[in-house]
Specification:
This protein has about 270 residues and is mostly helical. It is about 75% helix and about 0% strand. It has a two-stranded antiparallel ribbon. It is globular, with a radius of gyration of 19 Å.
């Protein structure tokens, strides 16, 4: 009976923790601006500078929005958590939480809720800004919206799990940003966020294919770009099924590493 009650309690505590995480995040104006507004700023810069047409019906802004949405999954999930958790650990916040009845799974659920809400707001802002200022076209095929939905859910979950797992790498909260941010920036350049992926050197493409961001960007391109553009991908197709399997594998790996390596304190 106690085991039957523990799961609902863990979920309820996780949901409550998620609400608290959102309120705390909204009070940090710098984090809100950087997390939510920074992608819009990049869209404004790149959309204004690069006005070329990559293919019939594909402007650079259309291509860039797909990449920025995928990149947002990594920014709000992996990067944000891999930086903030070490800070919480250093300030003793996690150690105090450890002294409460809250299970570690509830903590993970709370962080997942924060990431998903932040990502949803960011996507809405990107799509609205792209449509209003740069003529970005939204897909009309319901299948593409289905693909978009599972990419958001699976991508957010994988990024969250990997961010929690990577949070043990920085030795201190103060140095977390210096450790995490370069990793994300390099992956963004390698994964076709800022440039057409097939225009990158072959070795960059091979390195990028190891990591989930490349598959998230490719998946988002399959949603926002016409199917004819798939011929410009490395495999000549969107590889939707392969994208799903690779992201699922990274999610499982992230959950496993999070459970095995997560630390409540620096000790």
């Amino acid at each position: 009976m106690s085991q039957n009650k523990s799961l609902p309690t863990t979920i309820a505590l996780g949901v409550a923790r998620g609400g608290l995480e959102i309120r705390q995040f909204m009070r940090q104006r710098e984090s809100v601006v950087f997390t939510l507004a920074f992608p819009i700023i990049l869209l404004a810069i790149f959309g204004s500078v690069f006005k070329t047409t990559l293919a019939e019906g594909v402007t650079f802004s259309q291509y860039f929005v797909a990449g920025m949405i995928a990149s947002g999954l990594v920014n709000t999930g992996f990067q944000q958590l891999a930086i903030t958790i070490p800070m919480e650990r250093e300030f003793g916040s996690l150690k105090r939480l450890r002294g409460t009845p809250m299970h570690v799974a509830s903590y993970f659920i709370g962080k997942s809720i924060l990431v998903f809400v932040s990502m949803a707001i960011q996507v809405l802002l990107l799509l609205a800004g792209g449509m209003i200022f740069f003529g970005v076209q939204l897909p009309t095929d319901p299948y593409k919206w289905l693909t978009f939905t599972w990419l958001i859910v699976l991508g957010s979950a994988a990024s969250t799990a990997l961010g929690i797992a990577f949070s043990t790498v920085p030795k201190s909260g103060r140095g977390a940003s210096a450790v995490v941010s370069p990793v994300v920036i390099v992956l963004q350049f390698f994964s076709g966020v800022f440039f057409v992926f097939t225009d990158l050197p072959g070795w960059m493409q091979q390195v990028a294919a190891i990591f989930p961001l490349k598959w998230m960007t490719q998946g988002m391109r399959s949603v926002f770009l016409p199917d004819s553009f798939a011929l410009r991908e490395v495999a000549g197709t969107w590889e939707t099924e392969r994208t799903f399997l690779i992201l699922m594998a990274w999610l499982i790996a992230g959950i496993f590493l999070s459970i095995r390596t997560f630390k409540w304190s620096r000790d």
